[in-house]
Specification:
- The complex is a heterodimer of chains A (195) and B (456).
- By secondary structure, chain A is mainly α.
- Chain A contains 12 helices and 2 strands; from the N terminus they run ααααββαααααααα.
- In chain A, strands 1-2 form a two-stranded antiparallel ribbon.
- In chain B, strands 8-6-9-1-10-13-4-14 form an 8-stranded mixed sheet, with helices on both faces. In chain B, strands 2-3 form a two-stranded antiparallel ribbon. In chain B, strands 5-7 form a two-stranded parallel ribbon.
- In chain B, a hairpin with a 4-residue loop joins strand 15 and strand 16.
- Classes of the chains: A mainly alpha (195), B alpha/beta (456).
- At the A-B interface, helix 1, helix 4, helix 5, helix 9 and helix 11 of A face helix 1, strand 5, strand 8, helix 4 and helix 5 of B.
Chain lengths: 195, 456
């Protein structure tokens, strides 16, 4: 683990220079739409601003500003503040969604979810049984779609099934595990960054 | 990258991820604190209502509008260069020894639009570019710059704003509440570790756009634990009122807590009131500039009276730069002098600069056209044949003095104090490598530093 972190950290000091072309965060409006389409059904209107408790803060995630005849996308370059805000908003969402694995899942939540997501997420409630492991890919595809390469799915699945923590995860309740699975999909750059 | 660079990056990188909060704090304890506050009044200030005023005789002769109708008073040290200050600056007089005035500052000589000059002021290029704060030699803090007030009608085209966070009195309270609403990101958390590893793995896939984005996320994530920890210690009640001035206590707290090192305060709500092309708006300037003078006084009062630590005020540790994107013309063509608006003057601006590293109480540089009968230089007439504008007086950078009696035959930006010299002076105060200095003109050498206002 330590070696990995050391290896990983090699790239961190390389500051993104102005001359670099850098993927920006998609912004709150686009991510709201993606989550709305892939997780919820039309009876519910998803807004990350509600998880942040502020309309103003959602603008820090990236948004369009129109001045006279020009539109500019602002605040999309990843920085510590918007990264923390994505973490806060999406961790809360993952936590909320994981309630479907509770002994008595809130019916309002269940009714708000789209059938594909609900089917995949429900299967995860069997954790750590094999059925839930089989359902991991369905959950990934329901949320991520085909936006990430297969290697990302394998890395994500490997973290839960074969990583250093796999044994500890086997003893972790399904609700908590569903939240972890979802959080790591939402926070993946293939989900959050523009291509 | 050679082996030495690789090892250096490896060590720096591992330190950054594994111990950034601790190393950052230790570095701050041993290094002298230094901050930058830039205050911008967008719209194009008419400095003749503040620190570059003219005698009423010039108004009587139909040369410059003046709706105050009072004679200006001298401003400056006893044994040094003086300028004429409008009586509207009286609220600032108690703080006159907290800053110096740089008059006759040329902006971008070839463009007189708001956007091009805002771009030039903040990026050194009329077409935009990296925000100049990104060139500062900043310490490792979670945020490079906190920007409040938004921008006015024109939004400068700035890149490399990754470390600049727009906040206001409302959003800073919301941010504080949001951060308190979840457990902090811990760098030893397994999930966070996996997230960081994926970001890094994608970043290492190549130099592409997406890899760069992932790298930016990884860098941001490495600073997130410290940001959350420090933000939780900020008193959310510090932000008061809607005005940009109400945000200053937050900025001071961000400086004290080590959250950010620079601040950009833009009084954007004044933009359209400042940009007085219409005579109907121009006649209201006495009230407007009384308000602006009060804001400037409030900035210095706050910075002086707010402690950074037991022995120093925020002003002692902060370099302060106050300006606009340009000045204004003396009048408009074919308008009566007692009912005229003004247009943009990109050839002459004023900068107030004070605080850490800066000698205060001085006047440096001057504009021309100080009296109705002054003979303007051929260089002036070359770029302002209608005598509608002030321009700077040629400046001797080695002697830190105006070149008395020198009337250049042709215009060259190298003869004048330019915004690039002001920025390079700030860069010098921050110990920035000279290769980053702004050029005096396109493809020219670095603009000379204003040594006369630098301490030490």
């Amino acid at each position: 683990m330590r070696t990995l972190v050391l290896f990983v950290s090699l790239i961190l000091p390389l500051r993104i220079q102005a001359a670099d072309v850098c993927s920006l965060y998609r912004g709150y409006a686009e991510v709201d739409q993606i989550i709305q389409a892939r997780v919820f059904n039309s009876s519910y209107s998803f807004r990350i601003a509600d998880r942040l408790g502020s309309e103003e803060l959602s603008k820090l995630l990236g948004h369009y500003v129109t001045h006279t005849t020009e539109s500019q996308f602002q605040n999309g370059l990843p920085n510590p503040t918007n990264t923390v805000l994505w973490y806060i908003g999406l961790s809360k969402l993952a936590q909320e969604l994981s309630a479907i694995c509770a002994p008595r899942p809130p019916q309002e939540l269940v009714r708000s979810l789209n059938p594909i997501f609900l089917h995949a997420a429900n299967a995860m409630c069997a954790w750590p049984a094999q059925a839930s492991k089989t359902a991991q890919e369905r959950l990934w595809l329901a949320v991520m779609g085909y936006e990430a390469p297969r290697a990302e799915l394998e890395a994500w699945r490997g973290f839960f099934n074969q990583g250093e923590e796999a044994q500890a995860f086997e003893r972790t309740p399904a609700t908590e595990m569903l939240a972890k699975h979802l959080a790591l999909i939402f926070l993946n750059p293939h989900f959050l960054l523009r291509k | 990258m050679d082996r030495r660079d690789f090892l250096r990056l490896s060590l720096a990188g591992s330190a950054m991820w594994l111990g950034a909060p601790f190393i950052g704090a230790a570095a701050r304890e041993t290094q002298e604190p230094r901050f930058l506050l830039q205050v911008v009044f967008p719209g194009g200030l008419d400095w003749s209502y503040l620190f570059d005023a003219r005698p009423l005789e010039m108004t009587k002769r139909g040369l410059i509008q003046n709706y105050v109708n009072q004679e200006p008073a001298p401003w400056g040290p006893e044994n040094g260069l003086k300028t004429w200050a409008s009586p509207l600056t009286n609220p600032i007089r108690p703080y006159q020894n907290y800053f110096s005035i740089v008059n006759g500052v040329m902006m971008t000589p070839n463009f007189d639009g708001h956007l091009q000059n805002l771009n030039y002021l903040l990026a050194g290029n009329p077409f935009g570019g990296p925000f100049f704060i990104s060139g500062l030699n900043l310490d490792k803090r979670p945020l490079d710059c906190v920007h409040t007030g938004g921008f006015g009608v024109d939004v400068p085209q700035l890149s490399d704003l990754g470390g600049t966070i727009p906040l206001d009195t409302k959003s800073v309270n919301a941010l504080s509440a949001a951060i308190r609403s979840v457990p902090a990101i811990q760098s030893d958390d397994k999930l966070v570790g996996f997230w960081a590893r994926r970001l890094s793995a994608i970043a290492l896939e190549g130099p592409g756009v997406f890899s760069n984005g992932s790298r930016a996320m990884a860098t941001a994530l490495s600073k997130a634990p410290e940001l959350m920890r420090l933000m939780k210690s900020v008193n959310p009640q510090l932000a008061t009122g809607e005005d940009e001035l109400g945000f200053l206590p937050v900025l001071a707290e961000f400086f004290r807590k080590g959250i950010a090192q620079t601040g950009l305060v833009v009084f954007s709500k004044l933009d359209t009131r400042i940009d007085v092309h219409a005579a109907e708006a121009a006649v209201k300037q006495p009230a407007l500039y009384a308000e602006i003078a009060q804001k400037i006084a409030s900035v210095f009062k706050f910075l002086r009276e707010t402690p950074y630590d037991q022995g120093r005020s925020i002003l002692d540790v902060t370099t302060v730069v106050i300006t606009s994107e340009f000045g204004r013309t003396l009048r408009q063509v074919r308008r009566p002098i007692d009912f005229t608006g003004t247009d943009h003057n990109n050839l002459c601006n004023t900068v107030l600069i004070g605080g850490r590293g800066i000698r205060s109480g001085l006047v440096l540089g001057a504009s021309d056209f100080q009296s109705p009968d002054e003979t303007l230089s051929p260089a002036h007439l070359q770029i302002d044949a209608g005598k509608m504008k002030f321009i700077g007086r040629p400046f001797d950078f080695a002697a830190s003095a105006i070149k008395e009696g020198y009337a250049p035959a042709a215009f060259s930006p190298r003869d004048y104090i330019g915004a690039a010299s002001v920025i390079n002076t700030v860069y010098e105060a921050f110990g920035v490598d000279r290769v980053k200095y702004w050029p005096v003109e396109k493809d020219g050498p670095a603009a000379p530093v204003l040594k006369g206002i630098l301490k030490g």
